[in-house]
Amino acid sequence: MSGAIAVSNESSLHKDLGLAAEVPGTTEPAQSGLSMVVFSGDLDKVLAAMIIANGAAAMDLPVSMFFTFWGLNVLRQEGPVEVKGKKTMVEGMFGRMMPRGPDHLHLSQMNMAGLGTRMIKKEMSKKHVLGLHELIKSAQEQGVRFIACQMSMDLMGIHKEELIPGIVIGNVGSFIDAADKSRMTLFI
User: What strands, in cross-sheet order, belong to the sheet with 168-170?
Assistant: First the structure.
């Protein structure tokens, strides 16, 4: 009797956590995949997110990355971009103050006025570690879904035209739907 209870509890726990538990008598497909919230615009954190996303995609797992607030800066194009409509003064200020694209992100620790960022990029190159541009391109080529948060874009005055190609614009529901279908969810 206690063995049946343990199996039942374990199955329930796996189901509650979204894990693929084999439950006798069911034919439900196992959930798989990875969803991430990329909240940070720090170089080291975004590198980690992209490395994890590329690894999961290489293992044929579906991957969705939801970029919000400072994470949106990763998706911004490098140079000035023509946008439809006019930006407000605050939107223009945000646009000038925030980093524009992967090359302008800084380390979260030991940045030292940009010296730490230059040092880590040099070490990455020397040790043949892909840079952020290459990791983003690789992720897109492997089918990683990049979702930009519409609400954060509105708050920060970022227009769709300012983002790199291939970005889906979505809301929190887009992320929750992806997370609901995923086995793993990370917040970076």
Answer: 168-170, 145-149, 63-67, 34-38, 184-187
Question: Which residues on neighbouring strands pair with residue 35, listed in sequence order?
Answer: 64, 185
* 65-106 confidence digits (pLDDT tens): 999 999 999 999 987 777 777 888 888 888 888 888 888 888
pTM of the predicted protein model: 0.79
Nearest alpha carbon to residue 91 among 159, 172, 149: 159
Closest to 61 (Cα-Cα) out of 188, 168, 178: 178
Please report how many Cα atoms fall inside a 13 Å half-sphere around the Cα of residue 175, on the Cβ side: 20
List phi, psi (to 5°) of 66. Answer: -105, 110
Chain CA centroid to CA 173, Å = 15
